[in-house]
């Protein structure tokens, strides 16, 4: 299955997807970044993948930016859009255009800690368990139906950095696994609140 991957930064999740692409039946048609200095672009180039950069400064609205994003993605005729550390909120225009075709990974056990700085917020809230969620993207930020979660224990000694390393390690396992479910056509988004795996509501 052909996909585009959207990134903004380091791209360690992108790397885990590149490394497992053959195994999970994924063909990465293009890696698109809103940030020209994203290290993930270098990872994509090393893997000989096509890349595109969309500079937000050149667009006078979020819709105009997302229209350009749609037009680039359209050229690639993909069935899946994978958000891998993509730090822009997608407009309703984009989300409804690609309804059921967008996956995101979020570094917390949603619905806890949607938004940013999840690791520090989990530590500050004295949580004992933290983790990662993969979900379908809908109009509600970090609010689309959950597909899969994995947890890590927060030790007393954990800092934001050590916790983020632990969570990233689980991200690199869970995301290729969920993408594979999608490429096998086992995952379907029914509506804003419901998704199914193998025909059963998740
Ligand atoms: C990950 O923690 C991901 O869950 C979040 O942003 C981070 C991206 O890391 N959405 P990387 O760029 O994949 O290394």
Bound molecules: 5-O-phosphono-beta-D-ribofuranosylamine
Q: State the fourth-level CATH superfamily of the domain at 2-105 and 134-146 and 171-194.
A: Formyl transferase, N-terminal domain
CA-based shape = globular
Q: What is the ordering of alpha helices and beta strands? A: EHEHEHEHEHEEHEEE
Beta-strand portion reads 25-35%
How are the strands ordered across the major sheet?
3-2-1-4-5-6-7
Mean pLDDT: 97
What is the terminal-to-terminal distance? 23 Å
Weakly predicted, low-confidence segments: none
Give a structural overview.
It contains 6 helices and 10 strands. With 202 residues, it is α/β, with parallel strands linked by helices. The chain has a domain of 141 residues: 3-Layer(aba) Sandwich (Rossmann fold), CATH 3.40.50.170. The strands form 2 sheets. Strands 3-2-1-4-5-6-7 form a 7-stranded mixed β-sheet, sandwiched between helices. Helix 2 links the parallel strand 2 and strand 3. Helix 1 runs parallel beside helix 6. It is globular. The model has no long low-confidence stretch (mean pLDDT 97). It binds 5-O-phosphono-beta-D-ribofuranosylamine. The site of 5-O-phosphono-beta-D-ribofuranosylamine (GRF) has 13 residues, from helix 1, strand 5 and helix 6. The site of 5-O-phosphono-beta-D-ribofuranosylamine has 13 residues, from helix 1, strand 5 and helix 6.
């Amino acid at each position: 299955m052909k996909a585009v991957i959207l990134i903004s930064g380091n791209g360690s999740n992108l790397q885990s997807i590149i490394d497992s692409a053959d195994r999970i039946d994924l063909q990465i048609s293009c890696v698109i970044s809103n940030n020209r200095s994203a290290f993930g672009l270098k990872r994509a180039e090393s893997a000989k993948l096509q890349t595109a950069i969309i500079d937000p400064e050149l667009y006078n609205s979020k819709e105009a930016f997302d229209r350009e994003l749609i037009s680039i993605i359209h050229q690639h005729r993909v069935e899946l859009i994978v958000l891998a550390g993509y730090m822009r909120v997608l407009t309703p225009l984009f989300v409804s255009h690609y309804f059921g075709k967008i996956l995101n990974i979020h570094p917390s056990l949603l619905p806890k800690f949607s938004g940013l700085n999840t690791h520090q917020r989990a530590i500050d809230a004295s949580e004992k368990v933290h983790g990662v969620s993969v979900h379908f993207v809908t109009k509600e930020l970090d609010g689309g139906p959950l597909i899969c979660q994995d947890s890590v224990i927060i030790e007393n000694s954990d800092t934001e950095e050590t916790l983020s390393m632990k969570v990233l390690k689980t991200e690199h396992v869970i995301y290729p696994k969920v993408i594979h479910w999608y490429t096998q056509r086992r995952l379907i988004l029914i509506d804003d609140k419901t998704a199914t795996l193998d025909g059963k509501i998740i």
